[in-house]
Specification:
Elements lengths: L7 E12 L2 E12 L14 H8 L7 E6 L2 E2 L5 H8 L2 E4 L11 H12 L5 H14 L15 H13 L5 E4 L8 H7 L1
Parallel strand pairs: 5-6
Antiparallel strand pairs: 1-2, 1-3, 3-4
Helix pairs in contact: 3-4, 3-5, 4-5
Length: 186
């Protein structure tokens, strides 16, 4: 492997992870420069989601490093890891929206959790802008069950970017979508 690029936003070095007897990650190396897009392809069960969960610190590796914006997150404690996680927006498989919340409440959730002092008018304006960016005007009061699969994925993406993160991780962004919605999400 070449010398590390100090402009890398994400570096994964010799990452290993097993679950019981099942080896999922075996010496993974990855270097993603700041400002770039990276697509990770592989078959079902090949470890794509496991790798992403390591990048955001939801899983700890058996061995290796995960370096986010110059910081190795593997040895970090809860508080330091929480600080690094604020750099991320994450869209999980199937969008992982809260079923009992409206679209507006789903997208506003990170703002209310991480920017508690933000005035409600600013929350409302930010949510509207992110939903408009996703082509979702007028759906604020709908519930996830009232939306198509493509709309749910776009609401999940709006929620992931509502805090303007440096990094967005998107797990299976186009699975199950029609070609037009796939192009829109891409």
């Amino acid at each position: 492997m070449s010398a590390p690029d100090h402009q890398s936003m994400i570096r994964v070095v010799e990452l290993h992870k097993t679950f019981g007897e099942h080896r999922v990650l075996n010496g993974i190396h990855l270097d993603i420069p700041a400002g770039s897009t990276c697509v990770i392809l592989g078959g079902s069960g090949s470890g794509k989601t496991v790798l992403m969960k390591h990048m955001i610190g939801l899983l700890k590796p058996d061995a290796g490093q995960v370096i986010i914006d110059g910081e190795d997150i593997v040895p970090m404690g809860t508080d330091a890891l929480e600080r690094v996680r604020r750099k991320f927006g994450m869209v999980f498989q199937a969008a992982a929206l809260f079923d009992s919340m409206t679209v507006y409440e789903n997208v506003a959730f990170p703002l209310r959790e991480h920017r508690r002092k933000l005035p409600e008018e600013q929350v409302r304006e930010t949510v509207r802008k992110k939903l408009a960016l996703m082509g979702l005007n007028g759906v604020e009061q709908k519930f996830p069950a009232d939306l198509s699969g493509g709309m749910r994925k776009r609401v999940g993406l709006a929620r992931a970017i509502v805090l303007d993160p440096k990094i967005v991780l998107y797990d299976e962004p186009t699975t199950g979508l029609d070609p037009i919605t796939t192009d829109y999400v891409d």
